[in-house]
Design goal:
The chain is an alpha/beta fold. It has helices spanning 13-23, 46-58, 68-71, 79-86, 100-109, 124-138, 154-165, 182-190, 201-205, 225-232, 239-244, 265-268, 275-296, and strands at 36-41, 62-67, 90-96, 114-118, 145-149, 169-173, 196-198, 210-213, 250-253.
Length: 297
């Protein structure tokens, strides 16, 4: 049976560590030699497309990127029929979708691994790059703290899962109306992760090794921008917030960053910023995950 990755907790802790070990290998196993990887994009992406295509190439395979107008999930053709067709040609199907349910439907008919490149529920590939970056910077996870500041969204859930499963202390500071939903908290508790949830930024970032944020409004939420900005303004990551954290604290962001909204230009360009190392690690993390999931399947 194929293994799938729709969210970080589809991996056990030891499996998550194995993915990170594979991501760090300079000589990745050629598990995709003479094989294809289908990369579906309902949503466009700079880092996801480039990192996934290069990861597939580094594993010896051929990436095939497919945009939504070429596929038309549930408009031109059903999710199930698209999945059945693509698995005739490819060793893995990875998809960036609006509705997480489409990925779940793929797994029900798939005979090859399905990988979540982003959905409204989670962003596990980003979280893998995030914890890989933390590992490179600090050498480990236990005793380290990550503070996520902003919308308790899909990026937040995957980050908290990955960091918490690896033994990090996790704090999330969000406006009350935008905190992590109860279903997400229940899911975290099932794998032993109990983040500190607060509206108080100072409490969240105190002693943090990593301050992390994401856009106040995601793709598809642009109409909410004017409504969200005043609510999230106290959660902007600026130099004073970084100063509240621990000595040597670093700044991470999944990108793209709306400079002047969730983070100031000063912080993005500061010596504390590791966003470009984090962006590069999207490729290494993708390579590690694909190598692991294809060998496991």
């Amino acid at each position: 049976m194929p293994r799938h990755l729709l969210e970080i907790d589809d991996l056990g802790v030891d499996e998550l560590r194995a993915v990170l070990e594979l991501a760090a290998r300079p000589d990745p196993p050629q598990v995709l030699a003479q094989r294809g990887a289908a990369l579906l994009f309902e949503k466009p992406s700079l880092r996801t497309r480039n990192s996934m295509e290069m990861a597939v190439v580094q594993l010896g395979g051929h990436p095939m990127t497919l945009r939504n107008e070429e596929i038309g999930l549930d408009t031109r053709e059903s999710v199930e029929d698209v999945t059945r067709s693509l698995q005739c040609y490819h060793a893995v199907i990875a998809a960036r979708v609006f509705e997480h349910s489409k990925l779940e439907r793929m797994t029900k008919v798939a005979t090859v691994p399905i990988v979540n490149l982003l959905s409204d529920a989670g962003h596990p590939m980003q979280a893998l790059a995030d914890v890989l970056t933390v590992q490179q910077l600090f050498g480990g996870f236990v005793g380290r703290k990550v503070a996520y500041v902003g919308d308790g969204n899909n990026v937040c859930r995957s980050l908290v899962l990955a960091a918490g499963m690896l033994g990090m202390d996790v704090a999330v500071a969000s406006p009350a109306a935008y905190t992590m939903p109860d279903d997400d908290i229940a899911r975290l508790r099932k794998v032993g992760v109990e983040p500190l949830l607060t509206e108080d930024v100072a409490v969240a970032v105190d002693g943090a090794d990593v301050i992390y944020t994401d856009a106040w409004y995601s793709m598809g939420q642009e109409a909410e921008a004017n409504e969200r900005r005043p609510v999230f303004r106290p959660y902007q990551v600026d130099a004073s917030m970084m100063a509240r954290a621990g000595d040597g604290a670093v700044f991470l962001h999944c990108l793209p960053a709306h400079r002047g909204d969730e983070v100031t230009d000063e912080v993005v360009e500061s010596a504390s910023s590791r966003v470009w190392q984090q962006a590069e690690n999207r490729m290494h993390a993708a390579r590690g995950l694909l190598a692991w999931i294809l060998e496991a399947s």
